[in-house]
Every structure is written in structure tokens, then in C-alpha cells.
Amino acid sequence: MNITEPKYPPKIIVTGDLIKSGLYICIPENINKSSAVPELRIYEVGARDGLQNESKFVPTDIKIELIHKLAAAGIKNIESASFVSPKWVEQMSDGTEVMKNLKRTSGVNYPVLIPNLKGYETAKKCNIEEIAIFPAGSEGFSQKNLNCSVEEGLKRFKLVADQAVKDGIRVRGYVSCVLGCPYDGPISPKTIARITEELFSMGCYEVSLGDTIGVGTAGSVRKLMKEIVAVTTPDKLALHFHDTYGQGLSNLLAGLEFGIKTVDSSISGLGGCPFARGASGNLATEDLVYFLYGLGVNTNVDLVKLVEAGRYISNFLAKPPASKVNLALGDRFKNHEDIIKMAACTV
């Protein structure tokens, strides 16, 4: 990905609600707003990964409305449900109801998470177009999350992938704990590269590398990426960071240096894993979009509507958004263009 350097000194533009609010935002004026295709693909996981660890059950209609709001904000890839056993993740027990009742927007992808063939057969009845499979990068986490070894998990997911490919359904792969495991500690990048290769051999069109407990740093991301790009190309990879130690955006920047074009994120920074001690929320989608605008990368996402979506689910959960951008912007802006027009500021 080519990142355009902002022009200095910047031209300061202040209009509309910006004047009234007194809130100044550092966004370069050289954003390519005219591009019909975003320069970076955002894969939203808030409705699934973001909610799965919430102790308060989120009703089906709330989940569906959140998905609708994300689509209205311009998000084109929204992971919407999981077909895991309700015994293990009760929050995702209404996957069938969510998928059968949401109003699908043309051009928006609504993938679902699949643990096994049984889950796949159930999901297939919901008019799905894409699934995600999720082997672990460590033995300890595989046992906790999948109740099997890494190799057994890969064999299980191959059965799912084979059937999906046969049925003409896209398959995306996740690898969890790529930078560290709560049970096994540091993970060898070579191990993650091998698992990534196996997922592609199953027919996955893309593999998302997940720092499930958020222990990674820019340095460890670079070490991992050097191994991964030796076995595949960056355009087939995605990055999935949790922000446990506040490293999400710096880790992403390190990944972008390798040409990554897809990033997973979660509205309002929701997330965590019931089987990973210490895992906090995902990289917030609002923070990601703001960050990308700062790099001159067009996302075609309306940040005002995105903030509204984050407030919607945070209000239901009765807790403040974990997104710093959401907290900073609040309800001060009514027009996304007022944010885009604000040029980069010097400090």
C-alpha cells in the first residue's frame, strides 16, 4: 500500500460544526475522497467477536440493528454471527435468527464464524456467502478454545473448508494467538507461517493473523510478517489486533509497511475472548478509520455514522465506548464532510 505523506505546512480548514465545537482534528487535506474503491479493506468483527465476551446478553434485534448501522456507515464486510455451540458461547446462540432476519444491503458481505461441519450445515440454511474458520496458533489455546490439538483442529476445519468450497462459499481463515498465548507464552513465527500455508491449501482466500491477547508490539509484528510474506503475498493477509496494551495502531502501522490491505476491527473497541485470559477489546473501528484518514487513506466510511453505531451498542451495554475517537468526537458533528475538511494540524 502506498501511503501518501501529508503536506506541510498544512492548510487549516475550519467550517460548520467544527467552529462551534472548538474541537480540532489532525486529518490531512490530501484524502482521496473521489476513489470509488477503498485503498484498505475494513473487516468489522464487532457484532460477533466484539459481543461474544459480553456478560449481558444482547437480544437479536439489537444485534441486527447494530449490523444495519454499520452497513449504513459504509462498512462493507461485517462478520455477523457465529455458529458455535450455545453451551460454550451463549451470546452467539441466536446466529440463525440474526442471519435470517437482518436486511442485507447490496454490496455488503455478511460472513459468519464456523467451528465444525455441524455448524456449517446450520449456517448454510441462512443464505450465507462467506464463512470463517479459526485454528489456533498454539497448543494451549487450541485445547481451551477448540478442545483439541492444533493438528486435530486443522483436520476438522479442512472438512468444513472442503465442503464450503464445493458449495461455492468463500472461506476465510483466522489464526489466533499469533504473537503470544495466555497458556504457552511466545509463539514462533515459523509455526504461524506453517498454519497460514495450510489454511491457503484448504482454499481460504484470505488469512487473518490475530493477536488474541494483545501482547504484540511493532517489533514482534515485523518479525512475524517477515516469516509470513515468505509463504504468501500481503494482499491475501489481514491483521487482527486486540488493544490490551494500547499497541493496536502502532502494530497496524508496522503491518502496513509490508503491504497489508485488510484490517479487522470492532466497533467501539468491543471484544475479548472467553477462552483467553487477559484479552481485552479489539482495535476500535472508529480509531482505525480516523487513523487511516490521517495517513491519507480513503475508507469510504462515514465517521459520524460510525460513532453513532458505537454509541448505540455502548449505550445498550451501559458502558462508555472503548474507542478514544468515539469519546473525543461524541455527538459534536452532524456532517462527516466537516471532519474530512479539517486539515492536518501542527503541534
From TrEMBL:
GO BP annotations listed: ketone body biosynthetic process; L-leucine catabolic process
The keyword Metal-binding is annotated on this UniProt entry: yes
Catalytic class of the enzyme: lyase
Keyword Metal-binding: yes
Pathway: Metabolic intermediate metabolism; (S)-3-hydroxy-3-methylglutaryl-CoA degradation; acetoacetate from (S)-3-hydroxy-3-methylglutaryl-CoA: step 1/1
Catalytic reaction(s) noted: (3S)-3-hydroxy-3-methylglutaryl-CoA = acetoacetate + acetyl-CoA
Superkingdom of origin: Eukaryota
Alphabetized Pfam families for the sequence: HMGL-like (PF00682)
Location of the Pyruvate carboxyltransferase domain: 40-307
InterPro entries listed in its UniProt record: Aldolase_TIM, HMGL, PYR_CT
UniProt protein name: hydroxymethylglutaryl-CoA lyase
Organism of this sequence: Euphydryas editha
